[in-house]
Design goal:
Bound molecules: iron/sulfur cluster
Number of domains: 2
Number of strands: 15
Strand order of the largest sheet: 7-8-6-5-4-3-2-1-9
CATH topology of the largest domain: TIM Barrel
Amino acid sequence: MSGRKDYGVYIHIPFCESKCMYCDFYSTDKKGGLTQNYIRAVAKEISDLSTKVAGRKAASIFIGGGTPSLLSQSMAADLIDACAKNLSLADGAEITLEANPESLTLRKTSGYIKAGINRISIGIQSLDDKSLKTLGRIHTARKAISAVESAREAGFDNISVDMIFGLPGQPVRMWLDELSRTVALGVDHISCYQLTPEKGTKLGRIVENGSMELPPDTIEFFDSTEKFLKTAGYGHYEISNYARKGRECVHNIGYWEYRDYLGAGSAAHGMVNGLRWANVRDPARYVSRINAGGQGALRTETLTDEMKSMERLMLGLRLKRGIQMDGLEITSGMQSMIEQGMLKLGKRSIRATAKGWRVLDSVLAAI
Ligand code: SF4
């Protein structure tokens, strides 16, 4: 483990307006399920979980989904209040809400600031209407731009956006043009994800049956994104994430550094003191379990030292700076990657080299 005692809090809001074709997160388009009952159940679960982290500080809260921007201001405030009342929040704790452009207005973003949210992460994904349609998104490029502008106007000084590259027939220059317009919006943090046909998604099915073809090689996207965003003032600190100095995501760095996190809400996961849990996925079932005095967790797992070491390595190598060795043993797979110039061993740390980072999936598979 990293040895750090602070932890993160993840709250899952599993409701969406509609299902995007590439999405493999648990979410339901029955947004009528997002009721005060759901919020009360999550608040109760946070209170129940608080004993697991007694005496420790929460460095971040991340309200993710799903589409958390379906929350009203008062629902967001109730969730943050539940954390503030039951947990000990670090001074200046990062409090993020994930948002989709179609549900963001100036009124909403102003309300979220009043509720205590201090970072917003907007899933704009693309600034090209045709690409947005291909992805099954229900917003337009114009709406994405106005969502970012509303967040800024409301007073958010820490805005992140999610973007997707590697769409069918998308040339690198078109992606860079979208990135350039994203940078022009003055955002503080950009996550760039490759479109991936996950099993069980609509995208996975249509790629498998040959109705859609994705670019076979995305190294060029990776290299040109890094070069472009570096010139624009964004440091590449994690394999998919770029930030202006001081705007790196505290919450997500916690995952990559393998720090503990409380997970609340249906389909949330948590990990504290070597115990990992996964909550029941269906929101109605989750609410009934909590209301009946039970736990949200459906499954728990005690992590062995070997599992912890391997997971810590896999996650930590996603960070450009790598991770502290802290008792990690060099396996033969790691040694081979070091010899091939893919990994670099420092005095007390290990990281991927520039060469290894470009093909990180293969490096991770090899160790
Ligand atoms: S909005 Fe996000 S969570 Fe909801 S279906 Fe689309 S990608 Fe998945």
